[in-house]
Amino acid sequence: MTVEPTPEPYTGPESLEPLEPLEPSDTPVIEPEQARTPVPQNPQPEGNADVTRAGMVWVAVSAGLVVLILLITFILQNQDGVTVKYFGAVGDLSLGMALFIAAVGGGVLVAVAGAVRILQLRRQRRRQRAAQ
After folding, report:
1. Structural domain boundaries, residue 85
2. Is residue 85 assigned to a domain?
3. pLDDT by residue for the chain (132 residues), tens digit each?
4. What backbone torsions phi and psi does residue 43 show, to the nearest 5 degrees?
5. SS3 string of the chain?
6. Is 111 a domain residue?
7. Domain presence at residue 16
8. Do the beta carbons of residue 81 and residue 92 sit within 8 Å?
């Protein structure tokens, strides 16, 4: 078993030279107008355009087209026939189309539930405003 020697304690930099005092002309002077001027927290770099509605629509349409292409690819790759039974109705569809119809039905249910909740919140807000 070997024992490592203990390191020497840190004594700091080898030479400590005193700092030169600042001359009064070297210190920055802040004028009262400069002190009150707010500094922008998030300045935009020059050359960047602001976000516009047209830009947001373009991004949404582009994203929708990508999703649509992926969906068409999914439907085309799942052409196996399946028998679908729903509340007594029986029909033959491709697997991709059956899953697409199920997804759209689920989206409609979510949209209806969201619309009902929005209407509830609006009615509640109108009642609170009337009470004030």
Report:
1. 54-131
2. yes
3. 566 777 676 666 555 566 666 666 655 666 666 556 666 666 555 666 688 888 899 999 999 999 999 989 988 898 899 998 889 889 999 998 888 889 999 999 999 999 999 999 999 999 999 998
4. -70, 135
5. CCCCCCCCCCCCCCCCCCCCCCCCCCCCCCCHHHHHCCCCCCCCCCCCCCCCHHHHHHHHHHHHHHHHHHHHHHHHHCCCEEEEEECCEEEEEEHHHHHHHHHHHHHHHHHHHHHHHHHHHHHHHHHHHHHC
6. yes
7. no
8. yes
Answer yes or no: is 102 within a domain: yes
**Number of folded domains in the chain?**
1
**pTM score of the predicted model:** 0.50
